[in-house]
């Protein structure tokens, strides 16, 4: 119970993707140096030798824009401020265009042991529509070079329901991606976020409709499982033993501390978020936070998060709600959205596709 995950939000990108609404800004040498100094200050501020850190995650943005030495400084500061377990999972997100054989060797050498590569598609036409700066060939090369550098825990991002995408193009991406030395795939349905360049009729008119999106999702889940990537969460598939330990913290309401502009935390009984402001982060002695929940992980949130996982919700964990949940299950089971063995409730792939509605009915109605 004393374990802790640490999330470092790296807000730099070489180019903003047209579909993305995550907080990111252009990289400059001066901004990166100021950012690193602020990250180190904040790690020391939260220092707690009574907590042992077993997952560290560099997300973004594009963390791979930082140098290996900058990342090493952050890791060393974490190790001097907390107790880091010997088998800690240390993940870094990376854009294929920022990875070289030399850099991958350096990253592996400083202790990063899990790589999450932002591939999105193995179709050059789809990558162009998304505004990605890499080609499918470049992504393939990056993954192969990562394996050669010693990474044996590699994840790739896959986006589905893209403009003009059909089952054939999705199958092509999955077959090409799963032929690579990867152990994990995070697969997301494209959403047109408000205020992004994709938030326009030209793009929306080319997106698959609701029924087609459902077919693509179920096709994806089936294809990935055929290739040994078992679904363990709504959007995540892994070979046995390669589930993301850090992200699983989020779905199990375990503690994690976020550092950096726009980072979120569930820490010491509170949820809080850092302001989306790099300059403010750099110029503040301690990152400025907004508390979003004074008492997180109550029944509704706990149940909602657990039902995102394939293992589902253990009814013994919520005994006061057991009878009510069991009464609501029959129509969901009949429709193929959920299953139960009497002690546990979990969603099927079809249920995951409708997870917001299914979970809302089970937990909130």
Describe this structure as you would to a colleague.
This is Heme chaperone HemW. Belongs to the anaerobic coproporphyrinogen-III oxidase family. HemW subfamily. Residues 1-230 form the Radical SAM core domain. InterPro entries: Coproporphyrinogen-III_oxidase (IPR034505), Elp3/MiaA/NifB-like_rSAM (IPR006638), HemN_C (IPR010723), HemW-like (IPR004559), rSAM (IPR007197), rSAM_horseshoe (IPR023404), rSAM_sf (IPR058240). The structure is a single chain. The protein is an alpha/beta fold and 365 residues long. It folds into 2 domains: 3-250, TIM Barrel (Alpha-Beta Barrel); 299-364, Arc Repressor Mutant, subunit A (Orthogonal Bundle). Helices cover 39% and strands 24% of the residues. Helix 1 (29-45) runs parallel beside helix 2, helix 6 (167-178) runs parallel beside helix 8 and helix 12 (322-334) packs antiparallel against helix 14 (355-364). The relative contact order is 0.11. The model has no long low-confidence stretch (mean pLDDT 95).
Provide a count of the helices.
14
Estimate the strand proportion.
Answer: 15-25%
**Strand order within the widest sheet?**
9-10-8-7-6-5-4-1-11
Question: Architecture of the largest domain, CATH level 2?
Answer: Alpha-Beta Barrel
CATH topology of the largest domain, by name, is TIM Barrel
Average pLDDT reading:
95
Shape: globular
Helix share, percent: 25-40%
From the alpha carbons, calculate the radius of gyration and give it in angstroms. 21 Å
* Largest beta-sheet characterization: 9 strands, mixed
CATH superfamily of the largest domain: Aldolase class I
Number of domains: 2
Q: Please give the number of β-strands.
A: 17
What class, by secondary structure content? alpha/beta
End-to-end separation in angstroms reads 31 Å
